[in-house]
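Quick one: structure for this chain?
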Amino acid sequence: MKFRVLGPLSAEVNGGSIVPTARKPRQILTLLALYPGRVMPVPTLMEEIWGTDLPQSALTTLQTYILQLRRRLGTAMGPGGPGAEPGGLDGAGGGAKDILATRHGGYLLQIPPECLDVFEYETLVAGGHASFEAGDDEGAATQLRKALALWQGPALVDVRVGPILEIEVMRLEESRLVTMERRIDVDLRLGRHGELLAELAEMIARHPQHEGLHSQAMVALYRSGRQARALDVYRRLRTRLIEDLGVEPSPQLQRLHQAMLTVDPALDVAAGPKRGSTFDLYAA
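Got it. Here's what it folds into:
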């Protein structure tokens, strides 16, 4: 049994997909999968699929969606494999009711956390961060790259999200961005600045006000012998921040800019910090 949410929704049992085509059952399956082994209260499920405007038949409709999911699950689990026909309501429920279980006040998906790609992703990220803090750059780079390789696109890209799933998507996407930043920090510490130029150009285009990514792009360009381009990245960001937000770049970024103007030896790979982020290279 395998569930994937880091990209299009995928849920497979015995090699067969149990992802429903209807929008609301997809939301329910996704929400239950994101919290394996935990009871999801009925009001939370209702809020996800209907918001605050609940239809009178909300509870009955929700129970119907749960039954549909159990049927798909039971079909995939059955002795005939994914294509087998369920033997009526009880036949479809059988083992399926043990996995998509009813509890007082809600439902839960009784699967090990290891069945979810998010679990594998977060385990790799935690290991990568630990290696980073320990100064094991190669180990950190390997684990962070493996974590990011699990992503197949934006989180839940093919699932309509309600208020609960929207928060989960924001959390996952923010984690992905932070992980990418950390992996780039590691690559800069390993002297791979030249390999990062194209990726960083794309990243700052996607995140035009993100100071951390701009600091990384500046350092990568500077170490690649493109000081003028590095300074231009700062100038463009400063102009954007002033025009859009009415603020100057952070003190860290201003000090990084000044260090490049004065050709500070600390910017060299050999003299750079062995720990910490590129953005905090010139933190107070």
